[in-house]
Amino acid sequence: MLILKKEIIDLLEKKRFDELSRLSCTPQKLFSILISLSYDKTLTISWRAIEAIGLIAREMSKAEPDLVRNLVGRLLWMIRDESGGIGWSAPEMLGEIVRNNPVLCSDTATIIVSFHDENMLTAGVLRAIGRIGNIHKEFVEFAMPVVRSYLHDAAPLLRGLAAWALGEIGAKWSVDDIQQLTGDKSIISFYEDGDLKNLTVGEIAKRSREKLFRQ
User: Fold this and answer.
1) Which among 76, 89, 98, 141 could disulfide-bond with 38, CB atoms 3.0 to 4.6 Å apart, if both were Cys?
2) H or E element in which residue 128 lies
3) How many CA atoms lie within 13 A of 153 on its CB side?
4) Beta bridge partner(s), residue 197
5) How far apart are CA 155 and CA 132, in angstroms?
6) Is the pTM of this model over 0.70?
């Protein structure tokens, strides 16, 4: 188990996501290790594990869709109270799964959004909405008012994620709201393109505004 975990970490560090599903282990064990690596979101490796789960689920769903359905069920269970709070990265993982498995998991998007008012999960829900909405806008379009409500939240992370998510969904009506955040100098950690970066809320807002203008 320890050797397998080291192999997985090595592949994540090298961003070789496509090789993970070819490791000699059961899908259940692979997912378990990736989930265990996802908890500390101050680490780049955790975000890569989250991203990898969605990509692997896409590959496995082609031959064994029940594996993906079971994984979704497991992550939803982790979110609920009886899990003892170990599911704080579950919304992000579910977002990646829905993004990569639209036919199999389209109904899961509504469930993810329903957890937005749980303080420990809000950031993950906003992240999931943006990741899903970038490709499958129709799954999360109903959640635009929810996302908008966080644009002026006291927490910089939520402001930044809300501005980013609206840009990803293509909410053109939100340009004026996002414009108000372009001068926000609060710094947040933001994962994109395989790396964890420090960006200001204003930088994220400017990028979202520009993206909406281009659409």
Assistant:
1) 89
2) helix 122-133
3) 21
4) 190
5) 23
6) yes
Q: What is the mean pLDDT of the chain?
A: 94
User: Domain locations in the chain?
Assistant: 151-215
Q: What backbone phi and psi angles, to 5 degrees, belong to 15?
A: 60, 35
Instruction: Give the distance, in angstroms, between the CA of residue 213 and the centroid of all CA atoms in the same chain.
Output: 24
Looking at residue 68, its amino acid is V
Long-range contacts of 34-40 (CB under 8 A, 24+ apart): 34/8, 35/75, 35/89, 35/93, 36/5, 37/8, 37/9, 37/12, 38/89, 38/92, 38/93, 39/86, 39/88, 39/89
Residue in the block written with tokens 């999960």: 121
Asked if residue 85 has pLDDT above 70, the reply is no
User: Scanning the structure block, which residue is given the tokens 């709201």?
Assistant: 177
Q: How many helices and strands in the chain, by DSSP H and E?
A: 13, 2
- Whether 86 contacts 77, CB under 8 Å: no
Label residue 152 left, alpha or beta by phi (over 0 means left) and psi (-120 to 50 means alpha).
Answer: alpha
How would you class 22 by CB atoms within 10 Å of its CB: exposed for 0-12, middle for 13-18, buried for 19 or more? exposed
Task: Please name the amino acid found at residue 200.
Answer: T
Q: Which pLDDT score, from 0 to 100, does residue 81 have?
A: 63
